[in-house]
Design goal:
Order of helices and strands: HHHHHEHHHHHHHHE
Strand content: under 5%
Largest sheet: 2 strands, antiparallel
Number of helices: 13
Membrane topology: Multi-pass membrane protein
Helix content: over 70%
Domain EamA: 158-286
Keywords: Membrane, Transmembrane, Transmembrane helix
Pfam families: EamA (PF00892)
Strand order of the largest sheet: 1-2
Subcellular location: Membrane
Number of strands: 2
Length: 297
């Protein structure tokens, strides 16, 4: 548990930086191995890292809604998001999947307002739609051409659907964690279940297993460790940090993730990408200025 709200907020911001690089790194690892086994290996190391840092949580003291409800949302989101990356056909689709997934920051604002965790003024509606419009512009530069949008989505409908469903589940997890966690942290359990579920999917689909080389083992271990640390910190930051500032920072994940993916995956976005990121940033600032945390009871 973090004693300082400022420290909890800072730690949460570091999690956002780790997430921003996650999509591209996971894609590179999955290209070197079989996709599902690659993400299962990453999350196995993540679960191990969290267990070493936090130990097993005391489930008897935790809210059942938190353990079962938030746990189900967490595991479902991780599996859907990771599978959407694994199912991508090329690096351009990875960027689209990332943008669809990163609808969750503006949705978190909406869900937090509906859950009465944030006060708001009417400009937040403008900020929300500007952010969504910017994200859509990144996905489809000819944003008014619905036929082109459908053509893009039909190239990999399952992966895009998984990413979109994940974008709905993560805000639910964030809001419910804020309400029901009560200072507890079950993320070690959530990661263990996620890793086991991924291995289960790997065996069910009868995917071959490629033994990683030594350098790849190092990459997997480091990636898994950072992912585990990021999620553990985020869970604590949601409870003790400045949720308004953290939500603002999440709006910049699409920008950071796209920039890192552009460098790591060697992709070159069009001018519409930069226009879209500008709209996302503008929408984020408007939402941030138009909301405030509810007073503690």
């Amino acid at each position: 548990m973090f004693k300082s709200s400022s420290l909890a907020t800072f730690i949460g911001l570091s999690s956002i930086l780790i997430w921003a690089s996650l999509v591209a790194v996971v894609k590179l690892i999955s290209e070197s191995l079989t996709p599902i086994s690659a993400i299962a290996l990453i999350y196995s190391f993540s679960a191990l890292c969290i267990l070493v840092l936090n130990g097993l949580p005391r489930f008897q003291q935790m809210s059942k809604v938190y353990v079962w409800g938030c746990g189900t949302l967490f595991v479902s989101y991780e599996i859907l998001f990771l599978l959407s990356i694994a199912l991508s056909h090329n690096h351009d689709q990875v960027l689209i999947i990332a943008m669809i997934n990163y609808l969750w920051p503006p949705l978190t604002i909406v869900f937090s307002i509906l859950a009465k965790q944030l006060n708001y003024r009417w400009p937040v509606i403008l900020g929300f739609f500007l952010s969504v419009f910017g994200l859509l512009l990144v996905v489809n530069p000819d944003i008014l051409d619905l036929a082109q949008l459908m053509h893009i989505l039909q190239q990999n409908p399952i992966a895009y659907f998984f990413a979109f469903l994940g974008a709905l589940l993560w805000p639910c997890y964030s809001v419910l964690t804020k309400k029901y966690a009560q200072g507890q942290n079950a993320v070690p359990l959530f990661f263990m279940v996620t890793a086991l579920a991924l291995w289960g999917i790997h065996f069910v689909v009868n995917e071959p297993f490629i033994v990683p080389q030594f350098k790849m083992w190092l990459v997997i271990a480091v990636t898994g460790g950072f992912v585990g640390i990021a999620y553990s910190n985020w869970n604590q930051s949601l409870q003790f940090g400045n949720i308004k500032l953290l939500i603002l920072a999440t709006y910049f994940i699409p920008v950071l993730s796209s920039l890192m993916s552009m460098l790591i995956l060697d992709t070159r976005p069009q001018m519409s990408f930069w226009i879209g990121t500008l709209l996302v940033t503008l929408g984020a600032i408007i939402c941030w200025k138009s909301t405030s945390e509810m007073p503690s009871e």
